[in-house]
Amino acid sequence: MNAQLQLFHGGTFRLRSDAARLGRLGGELTVLDGRVWLTRANDLGDHFVEPGERVRLAVDDNAVIEPARAGASVTVRWNPRRQSFVGAVLAEPLRGVAFLAGRLATGFAALARSAAASACRAQGCISAGDSMASSGALK
């Protein structure tokens, strides 16, 4: 798979016997010439798209297209979902940051639970009369 139509501006492309990844931004695919074989992540079936047909792809569909017949070429128009340039460039790194932030939050929550448990144990000792004041050490 050496072609990649993950272009932010979209356009009309001709594929010759190779597969192309449409990216995760979502958008609309229109087949202009030839028959296209479309495969999407989390979709059990493959789809054949005929000339003139349009397919809307949701964000994170992660679709791959290729000519339906080996050795054939197809012409498609790809219109990705509109997104600012900065948003498009930062989309993937921000997903990674969100994942790491979630992992850090989980770690901090575990530390907070541990600190709360220690505080409860310490509070239990004080209320049981084990403090320095109740032992007569402070006068």
Structural description of this entry:
This protein is α+β, with helices and mostly antiparallel strands. It has two domains: 3-83, Sandwich (Jelly Rolls); 84-128. It contains one helix and nine strands. The protein has one helix at 85-127; strands at 3-4, 11-16, 20-23, 27-33, 36-39, 47-49, 54-57, 63-67, 73-80. It has a five-stranded mixed sheet with strand order 1-3-8-5-6, with no helix packed on it. A four-stranded antiparallel sheet has the order 2-9-4-7, with no helix packed on it. The longest helix is centred in the last third of the chain and has 43 residues, at 85-127.
H-E order: EEEEEEEEEH
Quick one: biggest sheet?
A: 5 strands, mixed
- Quaternary structure annotation: single chain
- State the name of the first-level CATH class of the largest domain: Mainly Beta
CATH architectural label of the largest domain: Sandwich
Kindly report how far apart the N and C termini lie: 82 Å
Poorly predicted spans: none
What would a concise description of this structure say?
With 139 residues, the protein is α+β, with helices and mostly antiparallel strands. The protein has one helix and nine strands. The chain folds into two domains: 3-83, Jelly Rolls (Sandwich), CATH 2.60.120; 84-128.
List the SSEs and their pairings.
Layout: E1 3-4, E2 11-16, E3 20-23, E4 27-33, E5 36-39, E6 47-49, E7 54-57, E8 63-67, E9 73-80, H1 85-127
Parallel strand pairs: 1-3
Antiparallel strand pairs: 2-9, 3-8, 4-7, 4-9, 5-6, 5-8
